[in-house]
């Protein structure tokens, strides 16, 4: 279950397995084994590294998947709906997220 949630969130964030492993500083083989449910009991330190890169709380890996409406408050939903209505392409939204991720990384270093 944890591995499936990690994989789902990773894909939602548009990261490959390799990218996530490198950014989190974890072994790609271990991450792969976790996502395939071969490893089922990762350490909290491992989950914290992954959660930091994915910008989610660690407990996001432990909860059952929620609908988008449960994960986003009304203001976020309104902003996303407005962006869709005015024709903001997904690629532009991905660039914004990547820029913000880069900015956070620069601030942390």
Automatic annotation (TrEMBL):
Keywords: DNA-binding. Residues 6-61 form the HTH cro/C1-type domain. Residues 63-101 form the Sin domain. InterPro entries: Cro/C1-type_HTH, Lambda_DNA-bd_dom_sf, SinR/SinI_dimer_dom, SinR/SinI_dimer_dom_sf, TransReg_Diox_bact_type. It holds the Pfam family HTH_3. SUPFAM superfamilies: lambda repressor-like DNA-binding domains, SinR repressor dimerisation domain-like. PROSITE patterns: HTH_CROC1, SIN. This is Helix-turn-helix domain-containing protein. It comes from Aliibacillus thermotolerans. The lineage of its organism: Bacteria, Bacillati, Bacillota, Bacilli, Bacillales.
